[in-house]
Design a protein that fits this description.
With 208 residues, the chain is α+β, with helices and mostly antiparallel strands. The protein has nine helices and four strands, in the order αααβαββαβαααα.
Length: 208
């Protein structure tokens, strides 16, 4: 089931999908959340039927050429030449995830987590979805497609679960450290962007 526009993603469903993805790869999700370290996303991905491809100047066309070289010619036609952050193509049995190699490391991790979210939440049949490269924003995003909100929520839950955010969120909300230091520490420790870390800290459930 996909949530309708204007409603928040079903976090219980998303957290169940995160746990299924991690535990299904032979990792202990509870132990990872208690480690205080960045989630080893690429290693978890390798244990699933997912093929990760990093490509410079990633576009719909470059994905199409790569898949055509593997004998696949069923990608949806897309005239845009704009670069994209990520792309997933596959079905319930196997999928290819493409990531733009030109993006910063933290952005690539979030793009990978986002595409895994599509794989875990939206792969009832054939799956082919692109993720646009983000533009700087000063307000919370509004999603035209609720599946994009769900994939972003999946990425936040697997990269920044509350147990891993707590070591920086708790001292921030107790007034022991300032917002700038909390964002810097969280972004470095969990290998996410400062923008993603800042938003997650604002969403901390212990905030007043």
């Amino acid at each position: 089931m996909v949530n309708v526009p204007g409603t928040a993603p079903d976090i219980t469903r998303i957290r169940s999908a995160v746990a299924a993805f991690v535990d299904g790869a032979g990792f202990d999700w509870a132990a990872l959340k208690g480690s205080r370290a960045a989630v080893p996303l690429a290693e978890i991905c390798e244990s699933h039927s997912l093929c990760l491809v990093e490509m410079s100047r990633l576009t719909h066309a470059s994905v199409g050429r790569h898949m055509a070289g593997l004998g696949v010619s069923s990608l949806p036609a897309e005239p845009s030449r704009c670069q994209i952050a990520g792309y997933i193509f596959g079905d319930v049995n196997r999928a290819f995830i493409f990531i733009n190699r030109d993006d910063p490391f933290a952005r690539r991790r979030f793009s990978l987590a986002h595409e895994i979210g599509h794989y875990m939440l939206h792969r009832g049949g054939f799956l082919a979805r692109a993720t646009a490269r983000p533009k700087p924003v000063l307000v919370e995003m509004e999603y035209a497609d609720p599946r994009e909100a769900e994939a972003d929520a999946f990425a936040a839950e697997i990269l920044m679960p509350w147990d891993l955010v707590a070591p920086d969120a708790m001292p921030l909300h107790r007034g022991e450290i300032g917002p700038e230091r909390a964002v810097t520490r969280l972004a470095a420790r969990l290998q996410v962007s400062r923008q993603a870390a800042s938003r997650r800290l604002r969403e901390w459930p212990g905030a007043s």
